[in-house]
Amino acid sequence: MTTYPGGGQVDAAQAALERHAVSSADGRCLGCGTLGPCTVHEQAMQVFCLSLRLPKRVPGATRPELIGARRVGVPALLAVK
To answer: Residue ranges per domain, the chain?
Structure first.
């Protein structure tokens, strides 16, 4: 098994990014409601910058359905509305 330095910090930063994603609909933080990326989001991004790693993508985290976005590659009858 491979271990990475700072893995605990990276895991905590990933969890913070998932809680504090910026909404596609109004540009506000989904965790605390501030406009744009909040300080928690910015601090989490700094951890990724310093660790030279990218955060994991979480599909739907920014709530794109609020602006009428549809899933690509899914038949229209199966797309979430």
So the answer is: 7-67
